[in-house]
């Protein structure tokens, strides 16, 4: 019982915790999310509001843990001490879930062995949460520029500018520990925000590295489950290449000296669009199209009224075919609006759009 006594007597503290948009309810659930999105910190903050003798936090990643003895003793320990809330961090399905009032399993991906267990996903920081973490902002435009550089991981929000690349690479090495995973991530970084198929990735990588197609497809599937990567479908073409989205947009950008502003902006916008408008798709000439309200969204960081009108004119046939009723243009800092034929066009800074409800 020594291991359990140690966990019971000393629950880590979520020092400096900043409130997130996701909160933990008072029932059994599976908390999951991509690497380093803040799952452990969220659950430790939750436990800080429960009486000490009524909860226990068990971290299966602790190198001191003997899983066999821990598994054999956990239920008796919970019953003896009348523990109401048990948190098992880094749960992988090989450890028994004790019977208690509330059990919280913290995992890398959804644990689907119990279909009745509610799922709670913790995504990385959106821009609004980042502002609460970062605390250095003088102007939203400046803060958004920092957000592009530091990314969406909570641990990066307060990193000094001179250490950003170093810290990002530390996260990359920890999240993708094997040489093959790191190679795949590095190649995928080139395609951030662009249409690509798994087979295209395989064909590109195998020219320089020994890699199997089965491993690549299996790894991509795992990364999708862990919410590391996601995809934007092409409108009415389910077999077409999908646009690649990564849960953190700064790590892929840090893989090369040349920057990919459009890839980063597309990834940020995609995450929001798939969250708020899950039916969103892309087309050959439109970055995002919502079939439900016929709204088109274009990314044009340095657009002005003249260049925006010219850009729309080149897309007018597709806009007519899709019966687009409104167009939003996302810029870095410019703001304007006009009518193009009978379509209202509104341009606004990216940082304002991302904060809208």
Describe this structure in words.
With about 350 residues, this protein is of the alpha/beta class. The protein folds into two domains: about 1-120; about 125-355, no CATH class. It has 14 helices and 13 strands. The protein has helices at about 1-10, 40-45, 65-80, 125-135, 140-150, 165-175, 180-190, 200-205, 215-225, 250-255, 260-275, 305-315, 315-320, 350-355, and strands spanning about 30, 55-60, 85-90, 100-105, 120, 195, 230, 240-245, 290, 295-300, 325-330, 335-340, 345-350. The strands form three sheets. A five-stranded parallel beta sheet has the order 2-3-4-1-5. Strands 9-10-11-13-12 form a five-stranded mixed beta sheet, with helices on both faces. The chain has a three-stranded antiparallel beta sheet with strand order 6-8-7. The mean pLDDT is about 95.
Number of helices: 14
Elements, N to C (H/E): HEHEHEEEHHHHEHHEEHHEEHHEEEH
How far apart are the first and last residues' alpha carbons, in Å? 50 Å
Structural class: alpha/beta
Largest sheet: 5 strands, parallel
Tally of discrete structural domains: 2
Q: What average pLDDT do the residues reach?
A: 95
Neighbour order of strands in the largest sheet? 2-3-4-1-5
User: What's the total number of strands?
Assistant: 13
Radius of gyration: 23 Å
Question: Uncertain regions: pLDDT < 50 for 5+ in a row?
Answer: none
DSSP strand (E) fraction? 15-25%
Gross morphology is: elongated
Report helical residue fraction.
25-40%
List the helices and strands and how they pair.
Blueprint (H helix, E strand, L loop, with lengths): L1 H8 L19 E4 L6 H9 L7 E5 L7 H14 L4 E5 L12 E6 L11 E3 L5 H8 L5 H11 L13 H12 L3 H11 L5 E2 L1 H9 L6 H13 L3 E4 L9 E5 L3 H4 L7 H16 L11 E3 L4 E5 L5 H9 L2 H6 L4 E6 L4 E5 L2 E7 H4 L4
Parallel strand pairs: 1-4, 1-5, 2-3, 3-4, 10-11, 11-13
Antiparallel strand pairs: 6-8, 7-8, 9-10, 12-13
């Amino acid at each position: 019982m020594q291991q359990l006594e140690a966990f019971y007597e000393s629950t880590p503290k979520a020092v400096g915790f900043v409130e997130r948009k996701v909160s933990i309810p008072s029932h059994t659930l599976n908390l999951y999310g991509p690497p380093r999105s803040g799952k452990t910190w969220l659950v430790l903050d939750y436990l800080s509001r429960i009486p000490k003798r009524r909860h226990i936090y068990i971290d299966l990643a602790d190198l001191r843990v003997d899983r066999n003895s821990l598994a054999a003793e956990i239920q008796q320990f919970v019953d003896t001490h009348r523990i109401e809330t048990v948190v098992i961090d880094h749960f992988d399905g090989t450890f028994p879930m004790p019977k208690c009032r509330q059990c919280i399993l913290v995992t890398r991906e959804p644990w689907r062995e119990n279909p009745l267990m509610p799922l709670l996903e913790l995504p990385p920081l959106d821009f609004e949460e980042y502002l609460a973490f970062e605390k250095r902002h003088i102007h939203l435009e400046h803060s958004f520029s920092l957000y592009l550089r530091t990314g969406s991981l909570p641990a990066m929000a307060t990193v000094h500018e001179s250490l950003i690349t170093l810290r990002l690479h530390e996260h990359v090495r920890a999240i993708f520990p094997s040489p093959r995973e790191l190679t795949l991530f590095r190649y995928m970084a080139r395609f951030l925000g662009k249409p690509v198929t798994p087979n295209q990735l395989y064909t590109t990588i195998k020219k320089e590295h020994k890699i199997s197609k089965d491993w690549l497809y299996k790894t991509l599937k795992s990364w999708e489950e862990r919410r590391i990567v996601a995809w934007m479908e092409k409108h009415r073409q389910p077999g077409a290449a999908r646009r690649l989205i990564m849960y953190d947009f700064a790590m892929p950008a840090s893989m090369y000296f040349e920057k990919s502003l459009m890839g980063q902006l597309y990834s940020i916008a995609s995450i929001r669009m798939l969250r708020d408008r899950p039916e969103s798709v892309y087309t050959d000439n439109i970055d995002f199209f919502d079939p439900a309200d016929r709204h088109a969204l274009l990314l044009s960081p340095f657009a002005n009224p003249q260049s925006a009108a010219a850009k729309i004119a080149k897309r007018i046939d597709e806009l007519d075919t899709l019966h687009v009723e409104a167009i939003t243009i996302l810029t870095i800092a410019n703001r304007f609006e006009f009518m193009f034929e009978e379509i209202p066009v509104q341009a606004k800074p990216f940082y304002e759009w991302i904060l809208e409800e």
